[in-house]
Amino acid sequence: QLQLVESGGGLVQPGGSLRLSCAASGFTLDDYAIGWFRQAPGKEREGVSCISKSGGSTNYRITNYADSVKGRFTISRDNAKNTVYLQMNSLKPEDTAVYYCAAQRRLDRLCVLVPGYDYWGQGTQVTVSS
User: Are 81 and 24 in contact (CB under 8 A)?
Assistant: First the structure.
């Protein structure tokens, strides 16, 4: 059974950091583009960051970030652990949301920050508040 499980969410003060993890079971994460999305109460789900599959090239990756998180968030992949991470620094109250990771099977080695992903995790809550 294909499954994505997010972890690492929690309550943090403004300016703080969190690292979210997205662990896959039942499939190889590196065969997919992986995206992080978030949804705040009353708002639509939005793309935060994504990373392409490596396609067999150890150092190959394409990453994309929403303008609102550029310079603060970093996405990375650990293929040995079948896990993708989202390091979030300088967190702001407007980053408060449920964060979801998702996997998209693509023929190319790109990634996009729009819906249309094939598999989704259950989400993890991130709350930024003093």
Answer: no
